[in-house]
Design brief:
The chain is an alpha+beta fold. It has one domain. Helix 2 crosses helix 3. The longest helix has 28 residues.
């Protein structure tokens, strides 16, 4: 099981959003088309902490219940907070996870009506 570190939380549209990261497992050569020299330089910068190389996860909760989530691998940014503040991907992930949460809530309430 992978360990995720919580980087950022926020409340929006009635949901609690949790953004967390874990180190990326794949090698940058699998994600970028770089020369050997560029790849070596990039890997050195990742190793020295100049860049963060991670998998991102957004989870959406309501009343402590996980209702939606989204994942994105191969994230290369100055820091995970740069991803949150400057990346359109973060907002897309939040939107996707909230849509999933809303669908799950709708399905839950629809199934309760069928039972009643």
């Amino acid at each position: 099981m992978r360990h995720y570190e919580i980087i950022h939380t926020e409340d929006t549209r009635g949901f609690h959003v949790v953004f967390s990261v874990t180190p990326e497992d794949c090698h940058p050569r699998d994600c970028f088309d770089l020369t050997e020299e560029e790849l070596t330089d990039l890997c050195d910068k990742i190793h020295r902490g100049v860049y963060a190389w991670f998998d991102a996860r957004v989870e959406v909760y309501q009343q402590g219940i996980l209702l939606g989530c989204d994942y994105l691998g191969g994230c290369l940014y100055d820091s995970p907070m740069t991803f949150v503040k400057e990346s359109e991907y973060y907002y897309d992930m939040v939107e996707y996870a909230i849509r999933e949460a809303q669908e799950n809530l709708e399905n839950l309430f629809a199934s309760r009506e069928i039972i009643a």
